[in-house]
Design goal:
Trehalose_Metab_GTase; about 110 residues; two-stranded antiparallel ribbon; archaeoglobus fulgidus dsm 4304 fold
Length: about 110
């Protein structure tokens, strides 16, 4: 059983930083961070890139991802990303929202799961 996660952040100069992680349910197996140019239709550019990278990774490693976690920010950049992953790669998605945890007056962002 293999799963993956994708998170993204908009950067200056029409760039999007994209992080990927492959996970076997117990351990992270692989990760990568890429910075892509997203001039014009950023939503389509981003979703095209994610779908292409995930498909290539599956083909190269002979994996079939059973599911994907995507960050709220990634979905906000490309609202059609979950539908495309399901329609084109047969991968259902869950969206994860960042929350801020306060401890000793220090705010620490963490992912709600």
């Amino acid at each position: 059983e293999i799963f993956f996660g994708v998170a993204a952040t908009k950067r200056p100069n029409d760039k999007i930083e994209v992080g990927f992680c492959a996970h076997d349910g117990t351990y992270s197996m692989d990760f990568a961070v890429h910075c892509i140019e997203a001039k014009g239709d950023a939503a389509k550019t981003f979703s095209d890139y994610v779908v292409m990278r995930v498909k290539n990774y599956q083909d190269e490693h002979h994996y079939k991802y059973l599911g994907a976690g995507i960050s709220q920010a990634a979905r906000e950049i490309s609202p059609d990303l979950p539908a495309r992953l399901w329609a084109e790669l047969d991968i259902p998605t869950l969206e994860f929202e960042r929350s801020v945890v306060e401890s000793d007056h220090v705010k620490t962002p963490e992912v709600d799961v």
